[in-house]
Amino acid sequence: MSLDIQKIRNDFPILDQQVHGKPLAYLDNAATTQKPRQVIDAVNDVYTKYNSNIHRGVHHLSNVCTQAFEDARVKVQKFINAEHSHEVIFTRGTTESVNLIAHSFGDVFLKEGDEVIVSQLEHHSNIVPWQMLEQRKGISLNVIPINDKGELMLEELDEMFTEKTKLVALAHISNALGTINPIKTIIDKCHQRDIPVMIDGAQAVQHVSVDVQALDCDFYVFSGHKLYGPTGIGILYGKEKWLDQMTPYQGGGEMIQTVSFEGTTFNELPFKFEAGTPDYSGAIGLAAAIDYVTHIGVDNIAAYEHELLVYGTDKLETIPQMNIYGTAAEKASVISFLVGNIHPYDMGMMLDKMGIAVRTGHHCAQPLMQRYNIPGTVRASFAVYNTREEIDRLVEGILKVSQLFG
Ligand code: PMP
Fold it and tell me: In angstroms, what is the span from residue 125 Cα to ligand 1's centroid?
């Protein structure tokens, strides 16, 4: 199905503006996506029509708001095909979800000497929480290396498993390179050894259909804001069997059943992990974002973004001294590059003057940059509203900057 991109663009009010006197070309979607009017309206509706703190309310507004919040949970459940809605926990985002797992899974299932496996292409948010556990509990962290194309070296993984391996935590898609990891193969390998797997889907849910039951992953985490939804809301999906046994992450309201100074009992799933007033407007906005992408069709989005990736890669490769980092066979719509020895920051600043928004730097993946021995890259990342014309402008812009730098 061919998408009407202009019609889609019209849903995103922010795109229709000039930056430094030039039409905005927003190519920083791996950092965050823009929001369609449908999401903005859904959040606006909460505050103009039915804002009220959720759960335990007896009055009308509280019931309406609670229902919308719980409907949002079911929407997420269906979106990722979780078996139960109570396996869907609302968090602040991917980062909080990983920290929750490191804390609460770590509390119960990891002890000194145990091993967690991550990969060389992880975002810092899937490295640092495990390092903190290294310090707190004396676990150790092992790292799956990547080849020059930015693909995981799976043959190395086979050698890394020991009886002490207790969890594998991996990105579904790399934010810095775009590599789509063969997570199903990895999950199956791990499960043959009874090792649970956590998938960081921050860069995936907006680009590929995710079915957590078909994948059979034990945990799957993502952020609303990269899926055309609001900031401050994210998801932790976990299989009931793990979540049930895990300790709460934060204490407070909502996560308890009874509290007394003699002792406190905890609430059941999902509330056990949702202490305090949750970001219900964010959850409701996320549900609207899910409706939005579902209406277009995630597979249609993926097919269109793949066309942009191929078009962009072909064009960028014609630029003299272009070095593209991340050339995996399976890639999402992210192009990371350097041109000659032009510093990524200079490239980014000059493109900005032409109205083109790209990200520069280490992309919160410093170990990956160390692997390539570079300080950072320039990253263009495409979403469903981007166009070939914007990519043409990017290419012209890069050529201009190259000429300026001789
Ligand atoms: N993992 C990956 C792969 C990411 O791209 C990001 C965001 N750049 C995160 C985790 C962290 O997400 P958030 O900042 O929304 O918590």
Answer: 7
pLDDT of residue 234: 98
Query: Does residue 115 belong to any structural domain of this protein?
Result: yes
For the question of residue 364 being annotated catalytic, the response is yes
Quick: pLDDT tens for 209-265: 999 999 999 999 999 999 999 999 999 999 999 999 999 999 999 899 999 999 999
Longest dimension (CA), the chain: 74
Q: Looking at the structure, do residues 133 and 95 belong to the same domain, yes or no? A: yes
Pocket of ligand 1 (CB under 6 A): 93-95, 123, 125-126, 171, 175, 200, 202-203, 223, 364
In which band, very low, low, confident or very high, does the pLDDT at 67 lie, cut at 50, 70 and 90? very high
Q: What is the CATH classification number for the domain harbouring 338?
A: 3.90.1150.10
236 DSSP 8-state letter:
E
N-term to C-term CA, the chain: 44
Residue from 28, 32, 95 to probe ligand 1 pocket by mutation (most atoms less than 8 Å from CB) = 95
The answer to whether residues 157 and 178 belong to one domain is: yes
Mutate to test the pocket of ligand 1, among 28, 33, 223, 231 (most ligand atoms within 8 A of CB): 223
Tell me, yes or no, whether 80 and 148 share the same domain: yes
pLDDT of residue 248: 97
CB 364 within 8 A of CB 171: no
Closest-CA residue, ligand 1 atom 5, reads: 175
Domain count of the fold of the chain: 2
**Does pTM top 0.85 for this prediction?**
yes
Q: Which residue range(s) make up the domain with 273?
A: 40-294
Let me know whether 144 and 210 are in one domain: yes
Catalytic residue among 65, 190, 217, 364: 364
Give the DSSP H/E element, type plus range, for residue 117: strand 115-119
Q: Are residues 304 and 369 in the same domain?
A: yes
Q: Could you write out the DSSP letters of every residue in 153-193? A: -HHHHHHH--TTEEEEEEESB-TTT-BB--HHHHHHHHHHT
Q: In angstroms, rounded to a whole number, what is the distance separating the alpha carbons of residues 71 and 286?
A: 11
Residue 224: the pLDDT is: 98
Asked if 15 and 40 count as a contact pair (C-beta separation under 8 A), the reply is: no
Q: Which CATH number is 97's domain given? A: 3.40.640.10
Distance from Cα 92 to the centre of ligand 1, integer Å? 11
In the structure, what pLDDT confidence band is assigned to residue 387 with cuts at 50, 70 and 90? very high
Residue 340 lies in a domain: yes
- Percent of all residues in the chain with a pLDDT value above 70, rounded to a whole number: 100
